[in-house]
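Before relying on records like the one below, remember that each one covers exactly one chain. Contacts with other chains, cofactors or solvent are not represented anywhere in the record.
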Amino acid sequence: DPPRPEVPGAVALCHEAGIRVIMVTGDHPLTARSIAGQVGILRDGINAPIYDLANANRMDETKNSCVVEGKFVDQFSMADWKYILSREDVVFARTLPYQKQIIVGKIQELTNSVVAVTGDGVNDAPALKIANVGIAMGTGSEVAKDAADMILMDDNFASIVNGIEEGRLIFANLKKSIAYTLTSNIPEILPFLCQAALDMPLALEVIMILCIDLGTDMAPAIAFAYEKAESDIMKQPPRDR
């Protein structure tokens, strides 16, 4: 099937946001390379090399992408895995279900990344289960849905990118609300600490603090939750866990 028209833009947005997009498919390597080139997963397009264990010079550091055939996955050494996962753009083709699980595990182990996996079939269930975030398609099998953490109702990759942007916005707004609240709460608690530690007269009574919190603090703190996203929210790298 041809790729959806909105996918290239979503993939480009992922790259801007510091998110790697890796294709893992059961299709032929040449088919996978063609489709990945069309949507921007392989920015080298049809020039991306096919990774071949028989090639002594396969670890070419000048290449930023590679296409890996599933039949080699079981034979890879740690050096092979480190080279492949250090490329910017990677496609795995002709993969079996258990190999998808191995690939996800290696990405988690060697890159320390938060890995989200999409899938719709029974064969995808092991990879969905082991992923940090398993995303099943709404039209997929019940086994895939049970193994996943969330279900994509419109089966659209671009919706995942929209979800990431919304998640970043929520996190940023929470930080704003907490920072604003702390700037008022710390001065409020200091008089109580001074009274206990230095036996100073109490500057603020409980009723005064309630008036400040309920009368002036609540509305601005809640307003931060409805702030719109900053213009560069999808141009920043993922935050450090």
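The two ends are 37 Å apart (CA to CA).
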